[in-house]
Structure formats: structure tokens, C-alpha cells
Design goal:
Pfam families: Hexapep, Mac
Helix content: 10-25%
Distance between the termini: 44 Å
Strand content: 25-35%
Keywords: Acyltransferase, Transferase
CATH architecture: 3 Solenoid
Shape: globular
Oligomer: single chain
CATH superfamily: Hexapeptide repeat proteins
Number of helices: 4
Family: Belongs to the transferase hexapeptide repeat family.
Number of strands: 20
GO molecular function: acetyltransferase activity; O-acyltransferase activity
Radius of gyration: 16 Å
Largest sheet: 7 strands, mixed
Protein name: Nodulation protein L
Number of domains: 1
Length: 185
Amino acid sequence: MGEQKDRMLRGELYRDNDPELVADRRRAQALVDRFNGTGAEETGERDTILRELLGKLGEGSWIMPRFQCDYGYLIEIGANSFLNYDAILLDCAPIKIGSDCSIGPRCQLLTALHPMEDHELRRQRWESAAPITIGNNVWFGGGVIVCAGVTIGDDTVVGAGSVVTRDLPSKVFAAGNPARVIREL
């Protein structure tokens, strides 16, 4: 493993134009293109492609096209979970989705971070990433955005259009921008 990929996986600043990372993204893009090009009746082919692309796909889980990701191998999905149309998972750090989750259409899970204070590092395209962890039996309404470094507890529901910028505990309903706990479930 090269230095930049190692730095990315450790959550340190890294350069995404590293040839190894570019090759990994191209491999993922080729698989994503194949997946997104399948017909509605090609569920077996979709499953085969996802199992080659993702780090883990639990039994009974499925994703609807269009699907986008950076690397694929950093994504783990538990059993019986569903990602609806147009999911975007920027997996520069691990993304773990538990079992029995329902992810609404056009949701985004975004692990990538860019320097805020150091403008020159940002101009030079340095970045970092922080993992996203989603518990079991979580439901996201359409258009939910989950930011880097967030953990969401089991049995939590996040309302449509919410932007989750910090951790959410188990068994709550949260909504808004930024998302806040509305009530316990």
C-alpha cells in the first residue's frame, strides 16, 4: 500500500491524485457504471457487481441504481438493508450501515473533509476523511445528508432533507439543518 492510501485510511491529510487512489476510484467507477447500466430484471447481476464492489453486503440487502461511491471497498452494509435511488456514498473513510436499515432516495453519506483554516493546503487539494457509522434499524427519509465523522444509533429515524452534522443517539427522531433530536422513540 502506498503512502497516500495509508494516510487516507488513517484519517490523515492525503492527496487524492495519487496514482494508486486514482486506480482504485477508476476500478470502482467501472463497477458502478456496470451496476447502474443493469436492467430492472437483472437483480442477480446487480448483486454480483455489488459483492465485487463493496467491502460487505449483508444477506438480503440491495441498492437501487443510480448509485455512486468513490472506492466501494470501504462500505459495509448489514443484512436486510435497502438504499433507494441516487444514493451517494463518498467512502474515503469507512462507511458502516447496520442491518435492517432503510435509506431514502438521494441520501448522501459524505466522509470527505477539506482543510478549513489552511487555505493553501485546500488549494493544493489536500483532504482527509472521517468514518460514518449507522446502527441497526435506522430509517432516513429522502435527501438526508450525513457528514463526516457522524455515528447514528440503533432504531433512529432521520427526517427527509435533514443534514446530520453530529452524532445521534439510539431511538430518537431527528430532523432539520443541522439535524437535532425532536423526540425519543
